[in-house]
Amino acid sequence: MPAFRHLLVLIAAAGAAAVFAAPSSAAVDQCADPPGARPVMPHCLATQHFEVWYTSDAADTSQYLTFTQASDFAAVLENVYAAERGYGFPAPLDDGDGKTDVYLMTPGVSGAIGLAVPDNAAGPTSSGYIIIDPSEVGDSFEVHVAAHEFFHLIQFASWVPQLDTDTWLLEGSAEWMGAKVNGYQDTDLETPVLNDMSLDCSDSVSQKCDPDPYIEDGYSRWPFFEYLAQRFGVTFVNSVFVQGGAGGVSATQALQAALAARGTTLGDAFDDWTTVQMTGYGITTLDASKPTPYLPPLETGAKSMDLGTVHVNVDHLASRYLEFARGNGDSSTACFAATLSLKVTFPAGTLSKPTFYWDGGGSTAVPLSVSGGTATASIPWDTCTWEKGEGFLSLPNASTTVDTADFAVDASLVVDVTHPVAAGTAPVPIPIWGQVVPVTSAAVPPTLLVYGPELLRLSATDKQIRLVVESNAEGTLQASLGTVALGSSALRPGSNDVRFTLPPGVLTALRRSAAAGNVLTLTPVSSDGVTTGTAVTRKVSIAAAPKAQAKPKAKTKAKAKAKAKAKAKTKPKSSGK
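Predicted structure:
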């Protein structure tokens, strides 16, 4: 966390007087004499909405600025003015010349880099001016500082709180505006600290809230105002200032009145906000931080069991969170589906609406079902040990008066051993010895091994080629005989019985052609059909067709009869006595 840089609003007249001096007797540079008791500086440049005061005395090393530096910061102020007025907020009250005075000088308050001072600290509303330390000019934080302090003057136009305990509203909302105008990109923006402490806790005199002034004075509450802006609109907070300016209320009461005008309550808004703290705002600066659990993570284990009761103390307008981790830390065992049952018992008057959220991705918040002072839920769970992801249970106390509220959380796990499951994220990597070899993400073609002789003997009458091919992966086998494509066959890892039909007459034609054409080529192709692998070939011998044998001519009955008759005529006759 970077060193704290104080952006103050001074609403106490005594505190403000310490940094004032009487104005000069005549106009300086481009500006008119400032009204009332204001700081005195030798130079001033005027823009459309600001008068920027500075010194160019090089001997004053802590405050020295050139005209160019002052002019550049004046341009920053004009951009801030355009942004905040563009959101719909009113202009600061006129101090007499229609412009806001900004003094680039050492604030004179320990640790402060900026001050916003009302001209009439005792009034319900007031004009005012800004003091910003010259060290912020040109700094990466300058837009945030300018936006923060200028927003205080917008606040003064509606309300100047009289109580130091109300400054949490002013500082928290001004810090939100500083972050918003600068696109939530401030590298010096401190991580919001929100757990445990009441939303409206602020007492910089006694430091009863926290010794860190960023937390103590209310700056750390700025995400609450981001939530209000996302739900009710950017200018909603101005309606809170207007309620405060009506008189007779605290900052908390002004917030309650503004929410009531929108048809809701502070209790409901606070409960919803504590859920957003888990689910996220859609802003990287905020969503990078998870809720800080009140206790170490509670492992739910791998067997059906009662996890016992946990007691959590929660003050008014505060929330604490319990974290639940799946499994028992042993990722080597099988895991099963389970149900995590939760029961939260809390005191009357806390207006609590607990919610459970698993942040492992693709999850939604699960509000517990509230009945009286009890809230319950059954959460789909498992016994896997997850590499990433935690379950959070919010325990909000949305009351404005109930402190030291005891929240009792009972949890139990029921495991379904008939339903094996797997964790939704990758397991913890196992260390590998040796050099890491990069591989392409493209599909790899199979490697082939063809069983059988190197020379395939085919007869001219064969109608099919049949082979046994060993493949190391899935893919496709393309075959060609000479220049004739025989088609393709699917491959699976292991042995494959592949068959290719031969077109009629192809073997006779190939036998008559050059011997170089009688080659069977088998080409493996990757499963996505993109990459071809190393082809395997086999020579093919095609035997000649057998010669047809001459058939004897058949003797007809007529020819046989004629031959017999001719033979009888030549036979000599026998003699008798």
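Summary: The mean pLDDT is 83.
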